[in-house]
Each structure stands twice: as C-alpha cells, then as structure tokens.
Task: structure prediction
Amino acid sequence: MAPQRPLRGRAECRRCNTDLWRVEGEGWRDGADVEACGTDVHEPDPAALLVVSLEIDNRYERYPSQTTYANDVEVARPVPGEDLDDWAYRNLFDFTGVGHEDGLSWYFVTIKASTVHELVGNEYEMGDF
Result:
C-alpha cells in the first residue's frame, strides 16, 4: 500500500461523505483505507475537483535543474477563502521532484491550464526556502 499521506489532494466521497485522499494507482481512499461506504471504490463529488496542467521547475543544490510537466491531472478544488499557497502545497507538491533525496531542493509550480480559469498563470514556490 502507498504511504498514508495525502496524494493528489483531498476530497469527500459523494456517497458516504468520508474524507478521501487520492492514492496513486489505487484511486480515492479514506484515511484508514477501510470500506466506509460499502465498497472499496469511493466516488468523490466531481464539483469538489478540478483538472490542472502544471509546469514544474525542479531546482537542486547538487543536481542540474529539470523542468517536468503534469498534464490534465485531477486535484481537489480550493474552497472559497482558502489560502492558495496552502492549497497548492497540499494538492500540487506531490507532482514536484524527480527522485533526488539528498541536498536542498526548490520547486516552482506554474498552473498552465485549469478548469478554474482564475488559477491559470499562478506560480507557487515550494521546498527548502
């Protein structure tokens, strides 16, 4: 099983209202990974999600910088009044990096396309600042 940390954001199951995390390769799961709504396939409310395309500038203390892309990925929609830097860290950070685990790293994530048009062009800084 994947590590128990939110991957690709958080949403709520539209059948049982359980808080869910998207676990890569496993779909939407609840925090305890149990069958809370009578099935092991939760269905998040589509209204709570959005699709984004990202450009990520990955910079490293010990390695050359690399630009990566995440296209048409589904993440949780920010809720009204939510701090967008906090939202970005919870929902976009897992798309950063190329596997280097030693040394400092800095990530600059730019939203290139989004179903929430107000987010297009936003850049978020993450990492060892």
Notes: The first helix runs from residue 84 to 92. Residues 1-8 have pLDDT under 50 and may be disordered. Residues 56 and 109 are 5 Å apart (CA to CA).
